[in-house]
Amino acid sequence: MKEDALTDTCGSDANPSEQLIREALSRITSSAIFAQSERLGRFLRFTVEKTLAGEASTLKEYLIGTQVYDRKPPYRPELDSIVRSEARRLRIKLREYYASAGKCDPVWIYYQPGSYVPRFQTQKPQPEHDAVTTSMLGQIFAQDLVKRALGVPPGSAAINVQIVFEGTVRVLFPGSAQATPSLDPAVHTASKRSCTRRVFSMPLRNAR
Questions:
Q1: pLDDT tens per residue across span 163-183
Q2: Are residues 101 and 134 part of one domain?
Q3: For the residues 128-153, what does the mean pLDDT come to?
Q4: Alpha-carbon torsion 154, 160, 165, 168, what sign?
Q5: Is residue 198 left, alpha or beta, with left meaning phi > 0 and alpha meaning psi from -120 to 50?
Q6: Are residues 82 and 143 in the same domain?
Q7: What is the band of 60 on the pLDDT scale with cuts at 50, 70, 90?
Q8: Which pTM was predicted?
Q9: 181 touches 198 (CB < 8 A)
Q10: Are residues 156 and 71 in the same domain?
Q11: 118 and 132, same domain (yes or no)
Q12: Domain tally for the chain?
């Protein structure tokens, strides 16, 4: 990759190699999100290839309009906004891609508003055990909050605590006749929605 290829390596110890960037480009253009956007794929590929060739400084609206969108003289970018509009669409598509199929890609390609020069950022993968630890800590924190809210001391029995939409809580005490979790009458809820999901169990002394 030439010296004036513009890179952004926050979160990385080294610039992504040209090979990694090309692999990232290939994943993006072959993804379902870009499958129906041939022109955006051309825009992306053209600007990445120019940058890798050390020609990032040439990436102006007029060049992209003539080389990617086949605009012919007298092409006047100030009157024809095709490149600016497509650049906005490309940024949106890339955000969609990295929020879904590309969220684990080792290299991200993105554009700053007002620039047609791609930036390349290496992502550090999060170890699986870190994700599990974060989830467990969140669960413990939620248990503690519910205990304090209900005034429940720790004990040997368990109650099922569920999160309901709109920020309400349901509690099922052991020994209940219901085969599935139900709403305990002692717990008030501001929501009438019935859709719940079980999130954890916690100990309760003097279970009902």
A1: 444 444 555 555 554 444 444
A2: no
A3: 53
A4: negative
A5: beta
A6: no
A7: very high
A8: 0.57
A9: yes
A10: no
A11: no
A12: 2
- Is the Cα torsion angle 85, 87, 88, 94 positive or negative in sign? positive
Residues 11/121, Cβ–Cβ less than 8 Å: yes
Q: Is 147 helix (H, G, I), strand (E, B) or coil?
A: helix
Q: Give kind and range of the element (H or E) at residue 33.
A: helix 32-35
Residues 32 and 113 both lie in one domain: yes
Q: Are residues 52 and 82 in the same domain?
A: yes
> Where among 65, 94, 122 does a domain terminate?
122
Residues 90, 179 within the same domain: no
In a domain, 6, yes or no: no
Q: What is the pLDDT of residues 62-88, one digit of tens each?
A: 999 999 999 998 999 999 999 999 999
Alpha helices, H only, 37-168: 38-52, 61-67, 82-98, 128-150
- Give the structural domain span for 184: 128-204
Smallest CA-to-CA distance from 164 within 137, 185, 195, 142 is with 195
Give Cβ neighbours of residue 131 (< 8 Å, ≥ 6 apart).
Answer: none
**Looking at 60-69, 148-157, 188-197, which range is the least confident one?**
188-197
Residue 103 in 3-state DSSP? coil
